[in-house]
Amino acid sequence: MAHLLSNERYFPMKFRKLGPGMMGAEVFAPRAALPQIVSEALRVCLQYDLEPMIEIHFLSGGDGLLLCYYITDQTRQLKYTIDSFRGLLISSALIELGARPYSSGVWNHVFSENSDKEELRGLEKAKREMDPQGIMNMGKYPRLGGRLAGLPAALFSPEVLGNGLRLLNLLGPISSKVIKLISSGRAFDRADDDPLLRAADECAMCGACVGVCPAYLVTKDERVTGRGKLLTARTMSVGEGISTEHAHRTFLCMRCKACEQVCQSKLQLIPVYEELERRLARLYGKDNEEIAKFVKQVESSPAYDALVERGLVLGAPGRDLREGG
Ligand code: SF4
Ligand code: SF4
């Protein structure tokens, strides 16, 4: 029963398993130290190839809560594990500068020495009193317990993992190279690691690319947008067929990169379109006449002019690209 309740309670979190999501390091720091903490967070992120989004909440007691987020993907196990580790490296670097961990629990067990001891004891007491059977937040405790002869607690301890993180941060560029090497290892990729499927998985389906796509503004057909092309890419990658008309519509694209500029998942979409078009051309051929007519129509449309004015059209003019491609 408790298991069912827990499943129900955490149902919304299951969506994370469908694709990209956020992960990050979260620390408290005195307000005066925030400029230094923020620049350190940026430096460490750069070192570990992360593009961070930083948020600060100013708290009433004079502290700031710094949230340093970056994109990860829970469907890619190795990437997710390495990204979790990168989060610990960031927290460790910030804690070295006097920040305190924001939360207590499994991942932050390594920083338990830097937590507010009194608060931690209060949390443990409240957990024991309010949930003596351990039904709520199953498996989550302020500190790691004594399972498997205390091995997890020992490995994640400040002495073992804490010193390891400190050492890796000291080695800076060397550890960053090692981490990059591990994360690029094909041996860890999924069996179905197809670049088209990967991009489709990473698409948040937010639709931000639809409203800025000149191809969509002219054709009113969603299949020509970034989101539409990624849905087609998924269909192709899982071996399903599409109609010839659908395939030919997918070629309608100005390569303007407006979609890339607004993409919420920061996807590099143009190489995906190119690969998709290569596969489609092999299976369905390519209608050059339809493409040429489309390019002319877009280039003479006020919607395209408006996008150019907004600085969203970064690619070379569509006609040249299409003729070259
Ligand atoms: S490159 Fe331009 S035309 Fe092509 S899908 Fe992206 S926004 Fe649309
Ligand atoms: S903006 Fe990016 S993430 Fe959002 S639907 Fe378009 S391609 Fe997908």
List the helices and strands and how they pair.
Elements: H1 2-9, E1 20-30, H2 34-47, E2 53-58, E3 63-73, H3 77-96, E4 100-101, H4 117-130, H5 147-155, H6 158-171, H7 173-183, H8 195-202, H9 214-219, H10 226-237, H11 244-250, H12 258-262, H13 269-284, H14 288-299, H15 302-309, H16 318-324
Antiparallel strand pairs: 1-3, 1-4, 2-3
One iron/sulfur cluster binds at residues 203-209, 226-227, 230, 259, 262-265, 267.
Molecular structure report:
This protein has 325 residues and is α+β, with helices and mostly antiparallel strands. The chain folds into 2 domains: 10-183, no CATH class; 195-309, Orthogonal Bundle (Fumarate Reductase Iron-sulfur Protein, Chain B, domain 2). It has 16 helices and 4 strands. The protein has helices at 2-9, 34-47, 77-96, 117-130, 147-155, 158-171, 173-183, 195-202, 214-219, 226-237, 244-250, 258-262, 269-284, 288-299, 302-309, 318-324; strands at residues 20-30, 53-58, 63-73, 100-101. The protein has a 4-stranded antiparallel sheet with strand order 2-3-1-4. A hairpin with a 4-residue loop joins β2 (53-58) and β3 (63-73). α3 packs across α6 and α14 (288-299) packs antiparallel against α16. The protein is elongated. The N and C termini lie far apart (60 Å). The model is unreliable at 11-17 and 318-325 (pLDDT under 50). The structure holds iron/sulfur cluster (2 copies). The site of one iron/sulfur cluster (SF4) has 13 residues, from α9 and α12.
